[in-house]
From TrEMBL:
Keywords: Membrane, Transmembrane, Transmembrane helix. This is Uncharacterized protein. It comes from Neobacillus massiliamazoniensis. The chain crosses the membrane at residues 34-50.
Amino acid sequence: MSNFAIMVLLLAVGSVASFIVTNKAGKNSNKINMGIWAALTITSLCLWYFK
């Protein structure tokens, strides 16, 4: 599996996760979504850096 495919997969997971969080958490969703996207960004950068 290529790193690009992994990054696309991470983006898909992040989109689904933030969508679910927004529906469930309501007011607190922004902070949680920021955390989700920060984690995904860091993970994808690490994958890209250590390929």
